[in-house]
Design goal:
alpha+beta, 133 residues, two-stranded antiparallel ribbon, five-stranded mixed beta sheet
């Protein structure tokens, strides 16, 4: 898209109104949209939990992931009563999901903060397959 002066536009590229990263990495919004695809229902039998994600900084936002007895849905916004809230910058969230940031190290260094049921945080790796990159 060209700017009015004929040069390239300085507006960020968007998909469905959400910014798209120019570095080839998925955005936080793109990852959130694909969470149901990565969900492993067989690992969630009997589990009912709401994971609140508070992604700070540019490209961030609030999302919650509802897991209920083998189903998974993602919603934008604040959950009414989450069982766990995970706070991290949008950039570190992308790095975490794409395997470029270790979750334990992120937690230990304060890049990732958890409020609520720590056991639910420990289950994230079994509930969701890592994305293919």
């Amino acid at each position: 898209m060209a700017a009015a002066d004929g040069g390239p536009s300085k507006e960020p590229r968007t998909v469905e109104g959400k910014p798209v990263a120019d570095d080839g990495q998925p955005t936080a919004a793109q990852i959130m949209a694909r969470i149901p695809e990565a969900f492993q229902a067989d690992q969630a039998v009997g589990l009912t939990a709401i994971y609140q994600w508070d992604l700070a900084d540019e490209g961030g936002g609030l999302w919650h992931v509802d897991v209920a007895d083998g189903t998974c849905t993602v919603h934008e916004g604040q959950a009414e009563n989450p069982n766990i809230t995970i706070s991290v910058s949008a950039d570190n969230f992308v790095r975490l999901i794409t395997g470029k940031l270790d979750g334990t190290m992120a937690f230990m260094t304060g890049k990732l903060k958890i409020k609520g049921d720590m056991g639910l945080a420990m289950r994230l790796q079994t509930l969701f397959r890592a994305p293919n990159h």
